[in-house]
C-alpha cells in the first residue's frame, strides 16, 4: 500500500496597526506553510506462523513568515514596526521500519522490529538564521532502534513479556546529544 498527502496553508489576513500619533500604519503578517508526506508499506506472511512488514515514510515541512522588528514594546505610545526579512524553514523527515513476529507455539510468540529515523533541514533562514548558532538552526540527526521481544502465556490468567531495545542516536548538529541506550523490560500480567 502507499499514500501521498499535501496540505498547503496560506494566511495573509493577519494585520495589526501601530500606535503612531499622526498617521498609524497597518502591517500584514503573511504566512505560508506546506506539509507533504508520502509512504509505502508491504506486509507479507513468509511462513504459516510468521508475519513480516517493511515501510518507508517521508514528510517535508516548508514554512515562511514575514519577520518584523521594533525597538519598543508594542504597547508603548509610538511603536513602529519595520519589515526585517522573510523567514523560512524546510525540514525533511524519513522513517524506514521493518519487523515481524513468529508464533513458536500456542503459548510462545517472538517479535522483532527495526526503525531508522532521519531528520534533516534548517529551522530558519535569512537574518534569523544569521543570529542563530548552527545547533539552534540545523536539524541533522539519525536514530536507529532495534527491538526484540518474547511473549509467553504461563496460564490462562498469567502472561510473561520480555523485551530488549537498543537506541543509537547521532546528532551531527549538536554532538552532545548523541548516544546509545540499551533497555531490558520484563513484565508479568495477571488477568483478574
Structure description:
The protein is mostly beta strands and 192 residues long. It is 5% helix and 69% strand. It has helices spanning 126-131, 134-137, and strands at 2-11, 15-17, 26-28, 31-47, 50-69, 82-103, 108-122, 138-153, 158-171, 179-190. An eight-stranded antiparallel beta sheet has the order 1-4-5-6-7-8-9-10. The chain has a two-stranded antiparallel sheet with strand order 2-3. The radius of gyration is 26 Å and the shape is elongated.
Approximate strand percentage: over 45%
Main sheet properties: 8 strands, antiparallel
Task: Give the mean pLDDT.
Answer: 87
The number of distinct β-strands equals 10
User: Which radius of gyration do the C-alpha atoms yield?
Assistant: 26 Å
Relative helix content: under 10%
In short:
By secondary structure, this protein is mainly beta. The chain is built from two helices and ten strands, in the order βββββββααβββ. 5% of the residues lie in helices and 69% in strands.
Topology:
Elements: E1 2-11, E2 15-17, E3 26-28, E4 31-47, E5 50-69, E6 82-103, E7 108-122, H1 126-131, H2 134-137, E8 138-153, E9 158-171, E10 179-190
Antiparallel strand pairs: 1-4, 2-3, 4-5, 5-6, 6-7, 7-8, 8-9, 9-10
Brief descriptors of the model:
8-stranded antiparallel beta sheet; 69% strand; single chain
Amino acid at each position: 500500500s502507499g499514500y501521498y498527502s499535501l496540505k498547503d496553508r496560506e494566511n495573509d489576513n493577519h494585520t495589526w496597526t501601530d500606535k503612531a500619533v499622526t498617521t498609524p500604519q497597518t502591517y500584514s503578517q503573511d504566512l505560508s506553510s506546506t506539509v507533504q508526506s508520502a509512504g509505502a508499506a508491504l506486509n507479507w506472511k513468509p511462513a504459516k506462523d510468521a508475519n513480516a512488514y517493511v515501510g518507508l515514510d517521508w514528510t517535508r515541512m516548508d514554512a515562511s513568515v514575514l519577520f518584523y522588528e521594533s525597538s519598543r514594546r508594542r504597547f508603548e505610545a509610538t511603536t513602529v514596526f519595520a519589515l526585517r526579512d522573510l523567514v523560512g524553514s524546510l525540514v525533511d523527515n524519513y522513517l524506514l521500519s521493518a519487523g515481524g513476529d513468529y508464533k513458536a507455539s500456542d503459548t510462545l510468540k517472538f517479535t522483532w522490529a527495526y526503525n531508522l529515523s532521519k531528520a534533516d533541514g534548517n529551522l530558519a533562514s535569512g537574518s534569523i538564521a544569521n543570529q542563530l548558532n548552527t545547533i539552534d538552526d540545523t536539524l541533522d540527526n539519525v536514530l536507529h532502534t532495534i527491538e526484540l521481544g518474547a511473549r509467553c502465556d504461563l496460564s490462562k490468567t498469567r502472561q510473561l513479556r520480555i523485551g530488549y531495545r537498543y537506541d543509537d542516536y547521532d546528532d551531527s548538529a549538536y554532538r552532545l546529544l548523541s548516544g546509545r541506550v540499551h533497555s531490558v523490560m520484563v513484565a508479568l500480567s495477571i488477568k483478574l
